[in-house]
Amino acid sequence: MTPLDVVVVGAGITGLGVARLAARHGLSVAVLERGDLASGASGSTSHMLHGGLRYLEHGHFGLVRESLRERCALAHMAPQLAHPARFLVPFYRGDRRAPWMVRLGLAAYDAFAGRAGLAPHAAVRAKEALALEPDLESAELLGAGLYSDVVMDDVGLAVAVARDAMARGVSISTYTEVIAARPAQGDAVEIIARDRLEGREVRHVARCVVNACGAWSDRTRATLLRSLHPGTPDHAPLLRPTRGTHLVFPRLTRGHGILLFARSDGRVFFVVPFGEHALVGTTEVEVASPPEDGAGRPAVDEVRYLRAELRRALPGAAETPALAVTAGLRPLLAAGGGLSAASREHRIVQDGPIFTLVGGKYTTFRVMARDLVTAVVRWLRRAEPNVRDDEQPLPAPPATEGDPEALVEYAVKRAFARRLDDVVRRRSRLWLTPDRGRIAAPALAAAMARHLDWSPERAREELEAFHAGLEREDRILDAARAGP
To answer: How far is CA 88 from CA 122, 129, 138, 271, 314, in A?
Structure first.
């Protein structure tokens, strides 16, 4: 078996970004992912490419500047998946942050963006703020700041990166879980994985392995090192993961995003316009590393928290039922202090041929990929690395709305979908229709059965699993609405 240069474990935006950039620099690459593309944190974001206004408050100026550069680059590379939006920051009497502090932060945000900036910030009086967004809470409203950021389709962008990687020769295997590793000839490593849907074994030999498993990176690192060096004690965790939960509603504003500071705990709170919908979030609940089973599922208390803060910001939305709830685990670096101050910077840890990439944020995935590929090229003793990434357009998604056959053909043949949930939730927006994709699901399952040679029993199992997932989600939303 001819060794590959790199096996990437994990197909969130970070792993896919590494695979794409490595292939662009002539390396042979395979990607192994235990679930679907972007089925973890990369598919449960706040749907924003942003510098992080709140990072300014904690002095992470370099990260803000870097993120704003990447915000501009990614909006240029994927204009169908990322577009500028105007955000409103209401000022209320008694807020923890005085209006002048927020205005200063907005000015700094524009300054750090420099030439990569969007429409500059501004300030308006209370009357003007209510003219822009009449449903805002008007009591004690003093005025508002305005600034610009970029709203994006997180899964759509990850799929575009995966398609670009595939076009450059990367092999991508989803639902394929790494179970062991062992030394191979020379300094190579043999990776042993299992296809979770078909039960078959998958093997790759590679000169190095990149662990880009997000919140599960500590677990993957331990699995690989135990296999390669039996008896070696486990390392201290690199991560301090947190769960972030979002609610999805029908459109809640007149087109603006809204940034507020939650009344209960002072956290940043967003209402993000996303097509004909609004994303409301987020929470931050610390979980163990490695995460226990079920740690990524939203909790009823988190849904109640989001609804309570939304009620304070947009009283008219109080009784609007949420369409959906999502949750993901952020791979924050292990450190002391409060969660809100935790760094979103990234770190590369090398254990011989095993490279573990942890931390970071969605917006800076290309920066993380550049740093990782630079380290890999040095390890492989190629020419002194000069790893760069241009801003060539990423593949655009085709128009498949209303055509189940065309949607499934694209999803299966060009976008790596292998399960019904992959198509409904992550290759379309059917999960955001009033029926959550239930009406379309039988036709989609039938089309997938034809493309993937499913038996009638397998097609029925996929439908049952899809409906069971929606029912679990509905129970959480119903329990949250029934509570205090």
So the answer is: 10, 8, 14, 10, 13
